[in-house]
Amino acid sequence: MSRWQWIFKQLTRRLWLRASLIGLLGILTAILAAVVEPYIPWHLPGAMGADSIDSILTIIASSMLSVTTFSLSVMTSAYGAATSNVTPRATRLLMEDRTTQNVLSTFIGSFLFGIVGIIVLQTGAYGERGRVILFAVTLGVIALIVISLLRWIDHLTRLGRVGETTDRVERATEAAMRHRLALPYLGGRKLAAGLLEPPAQALIVTAGCVGYVQHIDMPALTACSERGKRDIHVLTLPGTFVYGDTPLLWMDRPSLEGEEIDAFGEGMRRAFTIGNERSFDQDPRFGLAVMSEIASRAMSPGVNDSGTAIDVIGRMTRLMDLWGQGPTKPESEAVDHPNIHVPPLSTADLFEDAFMLIARDGAGLVEVQIRLRKALAALARKVHCEPDFCAAAVHQADLAWARADAALTLKADRERLRQVEL
């Protein structure tokens, strides 16, 4: 995915864009009845007074303004509840919820349709046929409002709840994992371990700013590689926190000098989108870290909800089981950018992001430790997985046991936990 495609994808998740488009559609619909009236050759049966339509549009405009204001307050409360009870990192997924955006956009569009319809109606731009057309469109808008209200009522019962928000994080993490399994190296080739350290004569491109790598534009890097006639070796994956002097990539120095080499390096730097926050799209580790935060907050003394932590362990097990299945395509089919070499995503890091916080904060909770040890034991038994996958599961199980052995005060709890074999 190119940088511009990624930016467009981010824009489509914004509420203001969807609301603006549907609001514009409502305005155009209200004006359309007056514009197309002269071009309708037939006579529409029935007559419709301006006052009757005006009263209906007034009801729509006033009620939609109230419903929109109420819905925004409910959304704000849901975001606050998610921030307090789940984790602030999950709030972004709530803000990108399609159902919420569609419903609010429908309310705003209906409000604008009613306002513009009243204005045009008062100017006398609608003739007899135009008023009939406007009335028919108004009936369609009312039906759309009713459907949206029913969906909104059902959606409000779950919006901002711990289980619903956790489910959203799991789905976002699963999507990122499936994308990475389909393109293990983002469409490039695997970067060999011996190439992680750039040679002395290499052209090294640094970040130039501080933040998280959110996206890598692989087509742009391929274009730079073809221009420089050299392979590019990427050193930082999406999700990495970089500083100004952090190397992003290196390549054998092309036959360019002076300002040309500086412009060439800047072109490669622009292929990396660096922001203040991590993104779920190309970063499966971020989703695992967010779910781990949810479990950690649930086990805090102020919440004391070990059931949520156990639920998160089950979700983590599903996700890591998916990761353990390995790439979904042969390596030859997953390479779209053969001149770009990208390091693999470390399985040990994924296990650490998923289970380390839970093992640390739940060290004194025997019910959490038992479920955690059973989950890691099940993952360690996956015979078709790579050796590093099983080794990472056993390593996290050993660390969890060491923490539990130090934190559990009752000997019976330690014995019970010891009986869960790997």
Descriptive tags:
single chain, 422 residues, alpha/beta, Aldehyde Oxidoreductase, domain 3, 3 domains, five-stranded mixed beta sheet, three-stranded antiparallel beta sheet, flat
Short description, anyone?
This protein is of the alpha/beta class. The protein is built from 15 helices and eight strands.
Percentage of residues in helical conformation? 55-70%
Give the DSSP E fraction (strand runs of 2 or more residues).
5-15%
- What value does the average pLDDT take? 85
Strand order of the largest sheet: 1-8-4-6-2
Backbone shape: flat
Distance between the termini: 41 Å
Low-confidence stretches: none
Q: What's the count of strands?
A: 8
- The total of helices stands at 15
Order of helices and strands: HHHHHHHEEEHEEEHEHHEHHHH
Q: What class, by secondary structure content? A: alpha/beta
Rounded to the nearest angstrom, the radius of gyration is 28 Å
- Count of all domains: 3
Largest sheet: 5 strands, mixed
What does this structure look like?
The chain is of the alpha/beta class. The chain folds into 3 domains: about 5-160, no CATH class; about 190-275, Pyrimidine nucleoside phosphorylase-like, C-terminal domain (Aldehyde Oxidoreductase, domain 3, Alpha-Beta Complex), CATH 3.90.1170; about 285-335 and about 345-420. It is built from 15 helices and 8 strands.
SSE arrangement:
Elements: H1 3-12, H2 15-36, H3 50-85, H4 91-95, H5 98-122, H6 128-156, H7 162-182, E1 189-190, E2 202-206, E3 211-216, H8 218-228, E4 232-234, E5 241-242, E6 247-252, H9 259-269, E7 272-275, H10 284-298, H11 306-324, E8 340-342, H12 347-361, H13 366-380, H14 387-407, H15 411-418
Parallel strand pairs: 1-8, 4-8
Antiparallel strand pairs: 2-6, 3-5, 3-7, 4-6
